[in-house]
Amino acid sequence: MCPPKTKRGGDLELQSADDLADDHADDTSPLTSEVERDGDDEAAAEPEQPSKPNAPVAEAKSPYTLAFCFVGLQASYLTWGYIQEKVMTTEYETGKFPSATFCVFSNRVLAILVAAAVMVYQHGCVSVPAPMWAFAPCALSNSLSSWGQYQSLHYVSFPLQTLTKSTKVIPVMLMGKLLNHKKYPWVEYAEAACISLGVALFALSEGSSPSKTGTQFLGVLLLALYVTSDSFTSQWQSRVYRSHPAVDQFQMMFAVNCWSIVMTLAALVTADELLPTLRFLSLNHAAIWDNVVIAITSASGQLFIYYTIRKFGPVVFTIIMTTRQMFSMILSTVAFGHSLGVWSYVGAVVVFGAIFYRIRRGGRG
């Protein structure tokens, strides 16, 4: 059993960030920002202010603190996205990285260590106040979404993958209605339609030769697996938070990643990818460091998430992460030579315009 939880003076008050995130897990708006949920995938964070009477309010709105959060989030996730695309698309000395599943597995290891360290600091021990089986469904969907995210880069461009993440609003709404019986206003559906239209324009404008149509279609299916599984993850986590209110964000992170490690390790052994990947790493030391950088930036980004939300609230946080999406697309296009047509820019403007309108509407609410 953990000792009674006490508030430490002068710390980052991570529990406040957890409470704020829990508030948003119960909100009815489905907007999801692109942030790391548990060391690899990107978590739901909605732009409405918390509605609970005793919810913590944003504090310490110093421009230097804001700059610190902005730079920390951008550096973490721009690096994460760049190295992720590098690992999955470039040739190392003996070929391309052999296993997307191993990337998911390696990231989960560091995520567990970070979660455990924060739990000990915050609660005095590593303990989850809920049965472990409650986290298994979202751990499975989370692992599938991560695998689909990595694997899709074999078939579609990173800019398309980044923009497609915005369509998570649609499966989030569907999962919210199915799992949590949520209702959404018509403006939500209109925004979702605009985002979908923009992504479709972007995807079609990229063009493809007949020989690549099949592989690009497979990439689209993998992106669909990613956004659908990720949407299920956030909605199931919301159910866990309501059923077990004592669970905080880092306990969720720890429990989900425990399941994810077991699942991905079993998949690696079953698919006979574990030993070949280890041999590949032994021959390509650059790939080892790339995987380490991905894991570190995932963990650092997650800590910046909680700190930024606590200090400035979800609206500022969502704006920062939306600009990160745009920077990621620019960085990928320049670094990896992706060619974008006129309709690609039109589609991107439609998507980001809808997102910023949604942020503005949420801020007014």
What's this model, at a glance?
The protein is built from twelve helices and two strands; from the N terminus they run αββααααααααααα. By secondary structure, the protein is mainly alpha-helical.
Question: Quick one: overall form?
Answer: globular
Approximately how much beta-strand content do the residues carry? under 5%
Mean pLDDT: 78
Oligomer: single chain
Domain count: the total is 1
Q: If you had to describe this structure to a student in words, what would you say it looks like?
A:
This protein has one domain. The protein is built from twelve helices and two strands. Strands 1-2 form a two-stranded antiparallel ribbon. It has 365 residues and is mostly helical. Strand 1 (35-36) and strand 2 form a beta hairpin.
